[in-house]
Amino acid sequence: MGKLSQEYRWLLPSALEASDPGRRSTRDWLVDILVFLVGFGFTLYGTIDLLRPEPSFLVEQAGTPTWLVWTDFACATVAAVGLWFRRTRLLIPLAIYCLVISTFTVAAGFTLLIVLFSIAVHRKFSVLAIFFLGITATNALFPFIRPEHGRDYWWTAAWGTVFLLIACLWGMVVRARRQLVASYRDRAERAEAEQQLRVAQARATERNRIAREMHDVLAHRISLLSLHAGALEIKPNATPDEVTSAAGVIRASAHQALQDLREVIGVLRDDRPEGAPEPPQPTLGALPALAEESRSAGTKVSLDVSVEPDTVPAGTGRTAYRIVQEGLTNARKHAPGAAVRVNVAGTAGDGLVIDIRNPWPISGGASIPGTGTGLIGLTERAALAGGRLSHGRTPQDEFALTAWLPWPT
What we know:
Strand order of the largest sheet: 1-2-3-5-4
GO molecular function: kinase activity
Largest sheet: 5 strands, mixed
Keywords: ATP-binding, Coiled coil, Kinase, Membrane, Nucleotide-binding, Phosphoprotein, Transferase, Transmembrane, Transmembrane helix, Two-component regulatory system
Distance between the termini: 72 Å
Shape: rod-shaped
Protein name: histidine kinase
Structural class: alpha+beta
InterPro entries: HATPase_C_sf, Sensor_HK_TwoCompSys, Sig_transdc_His_kin_sub3_dim/P
Radius of gyration: 43 Å
Helix content: 55-70%
Organism: Paractinoplanes ovalisporus
């Protein structure tokens, strides 16, 4: 059965054909009703006209035997009823049946043209060519079986072939148009699917960016909180002024952490003007404030920026700021109280170099959760910006965090 299906697959309906007549649309029903009325209407009218003593329409067929007229009517009626199944796999059997009766039928003239048109629309060109050659051959036999009075053989055969060609060409035009519409629909669906994929990818990229921003911003603030809370913990005999000062720094850092978190989450909102910068967007110009904030928390920071912040591209400046921020955060985590040296230098064309160094930590207390993830995020951030980042222990017994970022001319 499987082999038989493969062998005759070329006879099966194409993708443009409705698969089930019971699932016809309203338009399909209207078209099928009209097709049946045209096919059977011509059959009925032609039969009645031939049964008259003097036909008014089919004058050339006058004198046709009555038995042949009724035989033609019966066969044409079966063909007209078969038009209801022209959207299914029964189209080929119907076409073969019409091919047989086309040698003598007059009443099924329109039905034959409709079947030929349906094959041109719903079947491959090879099937149409075979059926057209077959019906052209039977059309050549028709004038011998039912000659027309007053017309010679070639006249009858030529006009029959012309009508067959018109039906074929019309069906091929309709099929080509449907294929064009189907290709446009397929392109539109693919474009929509690709657009949805791009939107999903953009959302995923934005979520990753927000996660990095949240880590970079909050890790800095929370490390300040941890530093001052630890100072209160190890100094139970601190003076009221020291406690008040530490509590004030903790409160300010917590307030600033909440403010930074609101700004980071704010990028998810759609009410921002198009093209407006997404907060937070600190650049190299904000490094002095960042260093002063670390100094107020007790970290000894030496900042040396030998470039003009306004000349550095905004994207490069943002990435450099995040690298310095993470470097100061790591120094507070792992080497509390140590002096940190931050150098930012470079020129357009050669790139921007960020170098952060502090003494290698001798010992540490309880580690803060998330240790190591910041450096991984910075490495990825630098790579996305087209740069590189390295970190580790130096021969001078220091921890060095060095990054290079491209600075186009």
